[in-house]
Amino acid sequence: MRTLGVDLAAATKKTAVAVLEWDHGSARLAHLALGVDDQEIVDLFGAAGMTGIDCPVGWPDALLPFLTGHLNFDAGPVLAHDGIAGRRLLAYRDTDRFTTAHTGLIPLSVSADRLAHPAMRCAVIQARIAALHGPQPRDGSGRLAEVYPAASLKIWGLSGRGYKGRGSAEAELLSLLLANLKAQAPWLDLAGHEDKLAASDDLFDAVVASLTARAAARRRTLLPDEAQAGAARSEGWIHLPSCRLDELPGEEG
């Protein structure tokens, strides 16, 4: 099978993709690119069994009634979110709180942070995918799963902090992180792209997103329970690996 990882940014120039081909206990990096537009993402999705996208695929359920109430001068839905606790429900989804509880990491808010810009782009990409391949459930039960590379790295025992940026310290951490990934995943053939991956945290995150997509495809991620399922379908669900890195290849392709 093929998995696609997308590190989605608001701008094309910062958007990266990585395609892994899985076959009999191994995986090979078949495609790696930076500066990817919407159409290429849609095309690559069509050829992949599962896609992991590093971007929220939805917004908090509480946000729309709040905004509609504000627009219509309806105080009820607005005052229902008075105070810090109320505003947190507008800023964070169930899956964000779940991720924090399980990893200690706090995802950026899709409605109150810069992450909103790539999320708007992600919504357009989802609409384009739906037009060609049918709507993809936001809970990841189809062929599109929301992923969080930093959380995946932490679960797999790899440091996911401090490597993002263009400074020398960040570059050193990224090189070390790449070396650790290769050591823990000797079955992963990076096809000579090590220098590119060591020079770009966007490309590296796309590879981690593709690895996490494999976990999602094999149903080896933490899934929402009955109480969380409704929100996951509308807000989206971050797929956190529930397996070790060395369990990803399996024996089948």
Mind explaining what this structure looks like?
This protein has helices spanning 38-46, 63-71, 75-79, 83-91, 94-103, 116-133, 149-155, 168-184, 194-199, 201-217, 226-235, and strands at residues 2-7, 16-22, 27-34, 50-53, 144-146, 188-189. It has 253 residues and is α/β, with parallel strands linked by helices. It has one domain (2-58, 93-247). A six-stranded mixed sheet has the order 5-4-1-2-3-6. A hairpin with a 4-residue loop joins strand 2 (16-22) and strand 3 (27-34). Helix 1 packs across helix 6. It starts with a strand and ends in an 18-residue tail after the last helix. The mean pLDDT is 95.
Main attributes of the structure:
253 residues; alpha/beta; 6-stranded mixed sheet; 11 helices
Structural class: alpha/beta
Q: So how many helices? A: 11
Low-confidence blocks of residues = none
By DSSP, the count of extended strands is 6
Strand order of the largest sheet: 5-4-1-2-3-6
Distance linking N and C termini: 6 Å
Count of spatially separate domains? 1
> Biggest β-sheet: count, sense, barrel?
6 strands, mixed
Percent range for β-strand residues: 5-15%
The whole-number mean of residue pLDDT values reads: 95
